[in-house]
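Methods — Computational structure assignment.
A single polypeptide chain was analysed. Its primary sequence is given first, followed by the predicted tertiary structure written as structure tokens.
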Amino acid sequence: MQSITIQKKKLILHPLKIRQLRELETFVKEAVKTLNLDKKGAEISVMSAVAEVAENGQLGALAEILFPDQENVKKIKWEEVDVNDIAVAVDSFLDVNAPAIDALKRILMSSGLAEALGS
């Protein structure tokens, strides 16, 4: 079991469940629309996408999808999270959930959004 620490709060990384994958799909699609990435046609990296989500105050909402039922998620001041902590969290999340992320990319590709996310 892998964990990360953000603002001295420990979060446990678990493989995504189907429900989380669906929530993440909805979140990504909404973020793509909100940021007009589907219209820009520009590729962005996962980290730049996370940075955009953070700038729009949605990092806490994303964390609640990725770390469900963990009380520490609510204790973290997401608008004050260190960028290095975000980078470590994203890398760790991708390591633990590589098969689920591949599935999400395939789902997004079928809806034409994967290109905007740099797949």
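Note: Residues 18-34 form the longest helix (17 residues).
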